[in-house]
Amino acid sequence: MSRVDAPVTNSGAGRLSPTALVGGILLALTVLASVFAPVLASSDPVKPSYSRRLAPPWGIGGTSAHVVGTDNLGRDILARLLHGGRVSLTLAAISVVIAAAVGIVVGLVAGSGGERVDAFLMRLADVQLALPVIMLAIAIVAVVGTSPAALVGVLALSGWVLYARTVRANVLTIRRLEYVEAAYTLGASDVRIIVRHILPNTLAPILVIGSSQFATMVLLESGLSFLGMGIQAPRPSWGLMLAEGRDYLSNAWWLATAPGIMISLVVLGANLLGDGLRDLLDPRAG
Amino acid sequence: MSDETPVGRRQFLTLSAAGLAAASLPRAARAQARRSGEIVAGLSERMLTLDPANHYSISATSVHRHMFDPLVDVTNDSKFVPALAESWRAVNNLTWRFTLRKNVAFHDGTPFNADSVVFTIKRARDNTKLIKSFVYQDVESVEKDGEYAVVVTSKRPFGSLPAHLTMLGMLPPSAGRNEDAFFQKPVGTGPFRFTSWTHGDNIVLAANPTYWKPGQPKVEKVTFRFIPELSTRASALRAGEIHVIDRVTPDLVETLKGSRGVKVFDVPAVEAQRWIFQLAKEPVKDQRLRQAISLAIDRNVIIKDLLLGYGRVVDSPVPPGLIGHTSLPPKAYDPEKARQILKQAGYSNVTLDFVLMKDLYPKQLEITQAVAAMLGEVGIKVNIKNLEIATAREQRSAGTYDMFFSGWAHMPHDPDWYFGQWFTKAGSEKLTRYNNPRVEQLIAEGRVPDPKVRQAKYEELERILWDEEPEIWPYYSVAIYGVSDRLRNFEPRRDYYVLLSDVAIA
Amino acid sequence: MRAYVLRRLWQSALTLLGVSLLVFVVLRVLPGDPAKMLLPDGAPQSAVDELNRQLGLHEPLHVQYGIFIRSVVRGDFGQSFQYRAPALRVVTERIAATAELALAALILTVAIGVSLGILAAVRRGTRYDYASTFLAVLGQSLPNFWLGIMLILLFGVALRWLPTSGFESWRHIVLPAITLAAFPTALVARLTRSSMLEILGRDYIRTGRAKGLAERSVVLRHALRNAAVPVLTVLGLQIGTLLGGAVITESVFAWPGMGKLVVDAIFFRDFPVVQTVLIFSATIFVGLNLVVDLLYTVIDPRIRYS
Q1: What is the percentage of chain B residues whose pLDDT exceeds 90?
Q2: In B237-252, which positions are buried (b, 16+ CB within 10 angstroms) versus exposed (e)?
Q3: What is the ipTM of this complex?
């Protein structure tokens, strides 16, 4: 989507808004907590303990030994949340990076590679978009198996198109600008044009997309785990914990609520931060 | 009486029959008057077809039993009782003779007789597109012997034929004229008639007022809804929208018991859980390793702590009540001995792949995780592979697994199919790769109709299996049902069927 | 203009053909055997082979695809392996259910999302802005099946105000529609807000205000019309999400729609049903996007996709 438009005045640009700061802090806190998981939670997140099954959180009938309670196999939920956070956040982050990388490359190629290459790549994107992500996930997992690599592949696959389209649009716009045309006639190569003129302009929207895509990836991972396509037991991940907690919602609601809240906090943080980044960096983006 | 008088013998008999019918009418009418209300059941598995010969699904069997009658019924104690066949006997090792019930009619008025039986069984055998067809490939001939008797001969002894027939509803021969049209609005002899089917959502049945069993059905209408999501199913029961649900998990029992208007029924099922080994693959082809694995598993913890008591200790590969069940010494839990055996046999750093078919059995993932931890205690590492069913089965065929979570519910209440499939060389070739000629011989000898012979053969082969441990039988499952307290006379079935023809609603 | 329309139609046709080929091939490459899924676990290999033969799966791939395309052109999408009924019929029975749910969710999305977005934009910086932004972000953050089950527990079991599952009356659609609409509503709300803010800051709007045009008129006639562009884009993409995200919602609420149908069909390896559903939904998706693209040219003639 490209528009040639008159410049716009925008009030409030140049500073990160308070809500964005809150978002950033939330995100940072959860990331830190996950990184320091073994220090913060001493219980084993994987080993079962049958005598302590389904213990409620501290304050609603539980003890301080298990602040957020225990799950259906007696494992400490806090420990699983923190260790699971490592898995879920890492997967989401890697997927975003890969999706961005692939998307940028495809977008650059499509934008500067000529009409036929462009048409082919965009049709490919359309075909993929026409199929729901869940289907692609099931197919990929069935062929390749349920490894974390497959999961990253699926998540990245679900996200690259947005980057590709944005970058492509930018490329097409910028190529037409006068000073770029001038650079071409002066003999500058494509690569140089890309690096010096195109990439800097696309950086801002990429960051914006990336931060909200991060949120989407976390949610997608939980959805895929709900359907059984995600991380395999007994390793914890937030999505898997949600799926496992599904059957206990009426008698042990904290099993699913805890990871649900964590996911919501992370997504909230990423979205607020993304909004703030957008307001800051790229006021034109809609 | 001469044949010229106005009332001939045939007419006399007809009039008498009518008179008898009229005399019995008040009783039938009284039975009719007792019918009232509507029951809604929530089943966990979708029903995919209205053809009794074209599925092996438990929920479809439940539903079909209301529309169609089989020749033979099986009680909750695994006893075979007359349904559309009044009696049956084995004429010799290869021949069964069924004497049929008279005065039964299909919902469209067609009388039930030997033609129906011949048609139904031949169709199952000859139409190889039908899912149940492979069971009847051994049938050599199906002949009627008069209007109300049928003789079935088979190529090999087929002692389990009556058991399999409990799952084959009888169809009118007219179904053969246009099967597609017939199964749009099927007609059987059962206690309920087909009303409507919304694919994937529900099926509605209406009472059959002329059902041959007195006092049945007890309600006017039955609706089966298909709700695979357990929490949704349970919520509907708790909210009073449906009256019975199946496949309740042990963790939900307390919640259901505490809900207003809900009761919980449970009964040991005709299902033994089994964890099979790939018997042609290192290292589990070594019987010592299997023995060590078996000793390392604390079955009591699984039953008590994970299944919350909703499991039973196994004393035979065949569940109690079925022919062939016997009492063998339960398997011990002795991790120390397991470690010794592993050390003596030279096993250290063993890693095994344990494959599950996703969401197939309740708590299977939890139990597997617990078992992985137990095996870890004796030095065996387990990789859990929770795969979608199709992929898991492929891996099983290809043999790329070490252990595989694979239950077996004896739906026909007879172990012959189980033994024939999993413990003969041909049968288990793409499954467990089991191979023991003595066992195979016993299975063949156990196919004869004589129950005493069968019991003896099965007991002998089970003793062999118990020692060899080609599979682990950790527990017998328990079937748990959630039931509204408005229902009367509900019987929790061991075979997971939900049967409502004898159930009333207050 | 006409050239543009024709070009878009051609692109859509290519996309659909690509989808059909991709789906067809991927299904047959997947490990797993339809016959094994239909037959019980203890069926002999001979039965499996025979059933596969009956289902036509022993032919080479290109032969199968040829047969498939020829049948589709005649309107025959094959027989569902599971249901033994024409796949087209099985799918069309479920389309109504999904369409109902998607439509209800769409109405909620547009009504609530756009309103919240406008409110937040015109009352920027006030507590209305913060509140609706917070609600929006919350809607985007909650996993939808968790939301669904919580709604069932609250409104269906505890309060007994609404039915917990099923399909009969208008009351059955409330909870699933809310669950399904949560994410798109939030997205649309935020997008409307930012889009409106951008427009409201523009020069010609300020000019309009300066000229004394009523605030209402400014907002509704000029701002909204221009803000509609990105919102329409998202709505177009959301149709696809609604159809795909409906899978989880349909599972939780036992809603007999296409989403659940296709996931079950994939697990079951019911090729004809999967093919039919995916081609259908791809057609709807591509068609709707085409319509949206064409609407753009009407709303803002300056826009052209290159």
Answers
A1: 78
A2: bbbbbbbbbbbbbbbb
A3: 0.76
